Amino acid sequence: SAKPSTNRSVTEKPLQPCQETPPGLVGRLLIEFSSPMSMERVQRENPDVRQGGKYTPPDCLPRQKVAYGIYIINQYGEDTFNRAKLLNVGFLEALKDDEEYDCFIFSDVDLIPMDDRNLYRCYEQPRHFAVGMDKFGFRLPYAGYFGGVSGLSKSQFLKINGFPNEYWGWGGEDDDIFNRISLNGMKVSRPDIRIGRYRMIKHERDKHNEPNPQRFTKIQNTKMTMKRDGISSLQYRLVEVSRAPMYTNITVEIGRPP
Ligand code: BGN
């Protein structure tokens, strides 16, 4: 008689889709920067995260493929900073790793979420996650604010031709993204203000990131510029890709203001 099968793939139930709301959320998190957090501790407390910061739930089938990896995009050299262009690079570089990624969360490096119910997934409409930041007294600074942390599905992102590449220095690029979303018939979605809370890591004023004097006129012209300036026109040179245990570090040369 045949032996009973011990092959896991034969005997185990197929994975069920993950729950809409993950089990084990705790809500409000205590985020303070008084004691430094070491990378070793982050690693120890997240044993299921694989090289490059990749993760997939072990016991259920994810409903979305959020770029389930952490990508740090670093601007090479000493020229003026360009946040939105770096975010565009992150989108393309993540897709090079896995063309099935269908959701992208774009985060400033200095923002730490204070509530784990603020779910980093994509929604019916482009998502603005950072609605309550400590530096703005945990309130939305203005109705059209789209800065800090946002999330778009692949199709939402492509619909707006990605983010603008031509905002050099501080300010306005997030307002341009908000305009792109509205002009393309979409509406920003947000978490409850009690949940979308963030602390900003304190840091000195960044060099090479002076307020952009062109930002006021540029945000008036999104309708004209978005068709040609965006993911469709993105140009950059990869300098380095290195895989750390908890993240993938990408350094790129993105040019300088004209
Ligand atoms: C706005 C900036 C945003 C910035 C927020 C919060 C501009 C465009 C001209 C009005 N927009 O004023 O980029 O995220 O403040 O700091 O400067």
UniProtKB/TrEMBL annotation:
Q: What is its EC number?
A: 2.4.1.-
Top EC class of this enzyme: transferase
Query: Where is each Galactosyltransferase C-terminal domain found?
Result: 127-204
**Biological or metabolic pathway of the protein:** Protein modification; protein glycosylation
Alphabetically sorted, this entry's keywords are: Glycoprotein, Glycosyltransferase, Golgi apparatus, Manganese, Membrane, Metal-binding, Signal-anchor, Transferase, Transmembrane, Transmembrane helix
Indicate whether Manganese appears among the record's keywords: yes
Single GO cellular component term: Golgi cisterna membrane
The GO terms describing molecular function are: galactosyltransferase activity; metal ion binding
List locations, semicolon-separated: Golgi apparatus membrane
Q: Which GO terms describe its biological process?
A: carbohydrate metabolic process
Q: Which cofactor does it need?
A: Mn(2+)
Please tell me whether the keyword Glycosyltransferase is annotated for this protein. Answer: yes
Q: How does it sit in the bilayer?
A: Single-pass type II membrane protein
Please give the chief subcellular localization of this protein: Golgi
Occurrences of domain Galactosyltransferase N-terminal (ranges): 61-122
- Similarity remark: Belongs to the glycosyltransferase 7 family.
Q: Which function does this protein serve?
A: Responsible for the synthesis of complex-type N-linked oligosaccharides in many glycoproteins as well as the carbohydrate moieties of glycolipids.
Q: What is this protein called?
A: Beta-1,4-galactosyltransferase
Full protein segment contained here = 81 to 338 of 344
